Amino acid sequence: MWFKNLIIYRLPVPWAMDLANLEEQLARNPFARCSGSEQQRSGWVPPRTGGSLVFAMNRQWLIALCTEQRLLPSSVINDEVKERAEALEAQQGYAPGRKQLKELRERVAEELLPRAFTRRRTTFVWIDPVNGWLAIDASAIGKSEEVIEQLRHCLDEFPLQLLHTQLSPTSAMADWLAGGDAPRGFTIDRDCELKAAGEEKAAVRYVRHPLDGDEIAGEIKAHLAAGKLPTRLALTWDDRLSFILTEKLEIKRLAFLDLIKEEAEKSAEHADEQFDADFALMTGELARFLPSVVATLGGEVVETAK
Description:
The chain is an alpha+beta fold. The strands form 2 sheets. Strands 1, 2, 3, 4, 5, 6 and 7 form a 7-stranded antiparallel beta sheet that branches. A 5-stranded antiparallel beta sheet has the order 9-8-10-11-12. Helix 2 (74-92) packs across helix 3 (98-112) and helix 7 (258-266) packs antiparallel against helix 8. The protein has helices at residues 19-26, 74-92, 98-112, 141-154, 169-179, 214-225, 258-266, 271-296, and strands at residues 7-10, 40-45, 55-57, 60-71, 117-128, 133-136, 161-162, 186-195, 203-206, 229-237, 241-246, 251-256. The protein contains 8 helices and 12 strands.
C-alpha cells in the first residue's frame, strides 16, 4: 500500500465533502468485470479487503480505482484477418478492397474480444480533506487523469486542480545543481537527467552515480551552461523519503526509508493492524513532505477568484 509515485492535486482548504457523502457518491460506480464486448472497464473497490469504499483514519482518506482490460494484441487480429482475407480472395476471385478489410478487421476483433485474457490494476488515491491534498499513486499524469475522470463522473462537485508552484521544478533543479547543494532538509542523490531544449532533445543521464565530486559537478555545470535543463533529479528528504523529482512536478520512485517501515511493523501484529499502521505512517510523512517540497519551489501559486 506504500505509494511509489505521487501526482499531486489541490482541493479547497478544507474540502466541503464528508466521509459518508464521498462513499455514497463513489458507490455510483462500483467495479464490475468487463462484459464480453468491452475492452476496458473501471470502478471503485475497497482499498482494504472486506472494507468500505473509503478507508478513513485520522481524518485521512484512501480510495482505490480498479481497471480491467482485455488483452487483444493487434498481431493476433492481423494474423486472423490475413487468413480470412486469403480465403475470401479465393472464394470471390479477387482481393478484398479497403472497405472489406476494414469490416473484416472489425468483425474479427468483435469475435476475439470475449475470449481475450484480462488484466487488472488498482490505483490508490490519498485524500487529505483538511489540508486540501489529493495525491494519486500513478507513474504519469496521463494515468492519473483516468482516475480524475472517474471521480468527476461520480462526484456532484469536484473542485480540483494540479499543484502549481512559484518556481518551476526545472529552474529550481538547475539552481541546486549549479550551486552544488540542495535546499535545506533535502540532499541530492545519485540520479540526474539533463535535456537540451532543441529539436534533437539531446540528453545526458547520470544513473546511480555520485553527483557531488568536482569532476561530475563540473560536467553538470558545463551542460547547464550549454543550455541543457534538468528534467529529473534524485533527492532525499529529511533522511526519511527518497524520490525522483521531474520537470512536471511528478514524484517518482518514492521510497519510504527502512526506519519508517520498521516503525509500522513494530506497532502491528495482524494484517489489518499492519494496513492501519502503514497508512497512518505514510500519510503522516506525506503531510510533512508535501509542504516542504512546495516551500523549496517558492511556494504555491494560488488562483484568485475572478
